[in-house]
Amino acid sequence: MIKKPIISAAQAAAKVKPGDVVHLGGFLGCGCPDGIVKALVAAGTSGLTLVANDTGIYNEEKGRSSGPAPLIKAKAFKTIIVSHIGTNPETQRQMNHGESEVVLVPQGTLAERVRAAGNGLGGVLTPTGVGTEVEEGKQKIVLKGKTYLLEEGLPGNIALIKAKKADRAGNLVYAKTARNFNPLMATACETVIVEAEEIVEIGDIDPDDVHTASIFVDFIVQAE
């Protein structure tokens, strides 16, 4: 196996360019590559499209911020594609003032759109959202008398994900529910950068324990 480059969080952030579609792993901060997020804020990169489960938790009074929230506050995204924004009032403010475009997608649909992209599919059929505003502008297909929405795949330019452990080849192990969107996003993007809590040598991870195979990973960052 070929060893993947180990880079700094700042070097990872430098690979994100204005206009990129960025898939960011995590669920309310759990499983989010916080070091890379911090470096992106410092880099000041903007004009991005975010694909994530949510926009993190933001509480200005308590100084609490998690997941994508620091990037939301820094106005890094022109478009935000997520399943909910209820824990980040700054996202809501930007949406209401037209500072960012927010596209809300049902959580299961979001996961399947990312999965479709990772598996080379054009999209998926789902009944979720039929008869609601979710169906606006989408093709509807009737199969055996049931109506489905055609939801297109959601590929990205770069995936920023978090793992509990990575070997030098890029085989990954996630920690329990911190797995969430990370494995799906690792398959759906052109470039994949993982922030790992622990980096071990090739062969130190049992093949049966690998959640994401090394073929999907391009760069490794050592978590703080």
**What is the number of beta strands?**
14
* CATH fold field value: Glutaconate Coenzyme A-transferase
The secondary structure category is: alpha/beta
Low-confidence stretches: none
Major sheet size, sense and barrel closure: 9 strands, mixed
Q: Output the helix-strand order.
A: EHEHEEEHEHEHEEEEEHEE
Can you name the CATH architecture? 3-Layer(aba) Sandwich
Strand fraction: 25-35%
Our count of domains comes out at: 1
The helicity comes to 10-25%
Main features:
three-stranded antiparallel sheet; globular; alpha/beta; Glutaconate Coenzyme A-transferase; nine-stranded mixed sheet; 224 residues; 14 strands
Written description of the protein model:
With 224 residues, the chain is α/β, with parallel strands linked by helices. The protein has one domain (6-120, 154-222): Glutaconate Coenzyme A-transferase. Helix content is 21%, strand content 31%. It has 6 helices and 14 strands. It has helices at 9-14, 34-43, 69-73, 89-96, 107-118, 182-188; strands spanning 6-7, 21-24, 48-51, 58-59, 64-65, 77-82, 101-104, 123-126, 140-143, 146-152, 156-167, 172-173, 189-200, 219-222. Strands 1, 2, 3, 6, 7, 11, 12, 13 and 14 form a 9-stranded mixed sheet that branches. A 3-stranded antiparallel sheet has the order 8-10-9.
Question: Concise description?
Answer:
This protein has 224 residues and is α/β, with parallel strands linked by helices. It is built from six helices and 14 strands.
